[in-house]
Write a structure and sequence with these properties.
Elements: H1 2-29, H2 32-63, H3 75-111, E1 115-119, E2 125-128, H4 130-136, H5 148-151, H6 155-163, E3 170-173, E4 180-188, E5 192-199, H7 201-237, H8 242-274, E6 283-285, H9 286-301, E7 306-310, E8 315-318, H10 321-338, E9 344-351, E10 357-363, H11 385-390, H12 397-407, E11 411-416, E12 422-428, E13 433-435
Parallel strand pairs: 7-9
Antiparallel strand pairs: 1-2, 1-5, 3-4, 4-5, 6-8, 8-13, 9-10, 10-12, 11-12
Helix pairs in contact: 1-2, 2-3, 7-8, 8-12, 9-10, 10-12
The structure holds adenosine-5'-diphosphate (ADP).
Length: about 450
């Protein structure tokens, strides 16, 4: 009410001052009352005029963008301008805060590994993040306000949206055809829908691999078990001669060993998958690994092959001795098992130009057709199942070698041609390899079985 009182007083003051002045001037023209009235009117008109001008200035500022400060007049208009400006600036600050909060929120949704798609009650696209755009093959700007079912036509998706039963998620093939998506839909606000999409290709593949693995293990164990139980039944029911009994026992022993080998390889794989990477500070002499692997190979070959070592006396590997040995001896034992009698098997150590090294096992065996090579390191993948089983193979050897290589930062490389033998290389990075003074001249260690 302060401003009202001041303005009234100012108007009254102007009125009196005008009237007073008019009265004084009127003394000279002998019309004091008329001049007093005219003076009062002129003073009030001046007051109103000035007031109007100030009001107009404020109005102009309001109509403009308010990008400069409000007119700083004294009195009512100044105060009004200041208060309006303060309220506007406050509103602007709040809008900025809201805006940046919204941007942060959208950035968080953008960073989500899941797709987020907002649909209006007509199932038109209101907003979607980059992941959802990729999942559904959408363009977040161009496709805004388009009906989603016109753009994503996968029958499972369309039926799911139309049925409106969102208590369970749905799976369908992404429009790109390269991945499988799982969708969850939630309703919010007035008929809006929040669609969350997740790429489950990897987990589906893992599930399938797990199922295959369990089926394979069961199959691998069931076969020797069936054979064993057959022999047990035979022994229990039939009166066998001593020679027959001895033969059956040998066969039973073979099946037991097959199961033992399988369980041992499964345990090795489980251990490789479940333990941390081998340390970098444990150095294993390469020559020792090669000699042990060769000795095992010789025992398995029992004089049927020529086995030779080449190099390795000047190198050490950083990692797990037991894992590296298991990888190399798997390669050597494969070479022995698949190479016909009289064949040649060579185990080399080679330095590589990048400072790394490789353990190489070559044989003069039957070789492997090109189409099989990429799959050899899959668990239970065999080119010739019966040859593998007859020679005590579990189908897990190369997958163990691959794991060991990867755990040491390396990889396995397989070169083979049908009829020309095979070369298996365990490549190790420079970080895991170091040179030592050779204990014996390179290429000197050559042992023939
Ligand atoms: P397995 O226990 O059957 O030998 P691996 O994983 O060690 O299992 O090998 C997978 C398959 O690769 C084998 O079944 C065999 O068909 C093929 N293979 C491995 N090494 C050789 C080799 N040196 N020569 C020919 N074939 C090989």
């Amino acid at each position: 009410m302060n401003w009202l009182l001041t303005r009234t007083l100012a108007a009254v003051l102007m009125l009196f001052v005008g009237a007073g002045l008019g009265y004084v001037i009127g003394q000279f023209t002998a019309t004091p009352m008329t001049m007093a009235l005219a003076g009062a009117t002129a003073a009030v008109a001046l007051f109103v005029g000035l007031d109007g001008l100030r009001g107009e200035k404020l109005m102009l500022w309001l109509r403009g963008g308010q990008d400069h400060p409000a007119p700083r007049d004294a009195g009512l208009w100044g105060e009004l301008g200041y208060s309006i400006e303060k309220a506007l600036r406050q509103r602007e600050r709040e809008r900025h805060t809201e805006e940046s909060r919204l941007q942060q929120f959208l950035a968080a949704i953008e960073a989500s590994p899941n797709g987020v798609l907002l649909l209006d009650p007509m199932e038109r696209i209101d907003w979607c993040n980059r992941v959802a755009a990729e999942h559904f093959g959408l363009d977040p700007l161009r496709d805004r306000l388009q009906r989603v079912t016109n753009l994503v036509r996968a029958p499972a998706f369309v039926t799911y949206l139309q049925a409106g039963q969102f208590d369970k998620p749905v799976r369908f093939s992404a429009p790109s055809g390269r991945s499988t998506l799982e969708l969850t839909v939630r309703r919010y606000a007035d008929g809006m829908k929040l669609v969350l999409s997740q790429d489950i290709t990897e987990s589906e593949r893992n599930d399938a691999m797990r199922r295959d693995f369990v089926a394979n293990v069961s199959h691998e164990i069931r076969t020797p078990l069936t054979v064993l139980s057959g022999f047990v039944e035979t022994m229990a029911r039939l009166p066998l001669s001593e020679a027959e009994r001895a033969r059956v026992l040998v066969l039973m022993d073979q099946q037991t060993q097959r199961m033992q080998a399988l369980v041992a390889d499964l345990l090795t794989l489980a251990q490789l998958e479940g333990s941390p990477r081998p340390a970098h500070d444990r150095w294993v002499p390469v020559a020792g690994l090669m000699r042990r692997a060769l000795a095992d190979g010789q025992a398995l070959s029992a004089g049927r092959h020529r086995l030779q070592l080449h190099g390795g006396d000047d190198a050490e590997l950083a990692g797990s001795e037991s894992e590296l040995f298991s990888a190399l001896s798997n390669l050597v034992s494969n070479a022995v098992r698949y190479t016909p009698e009289g064949g040649q098997i060579d185990v080399h150590w080679r330095w590589r130009e990048d400072g790394g090294g490789e353990l190489l096992v070559s044989d003069t065996g039957p070789g492997i057709a090109r189409e099989h090579i990429p799959r050899l390191t899959e668990r239970f993948y065999r080119v010739d199942g019966s040859r593998s089983r007859d020679t005590g193979g579990t189908g897990l050897g190369l997958s163990i070698v691959k794991h060991v290589a990867q755990r040491h930062g390396g990889e396995i490389d397989i070169q083979s041609e049908l009829g020309k033998g095979s070369v298996f290389r365990l490549l190790l990075p420079a970080l895991r390899v170091r040179a030592t003074a050779p204990a014996a001249p390179a290429d000197a260690a050559s042992i023939t079985a």
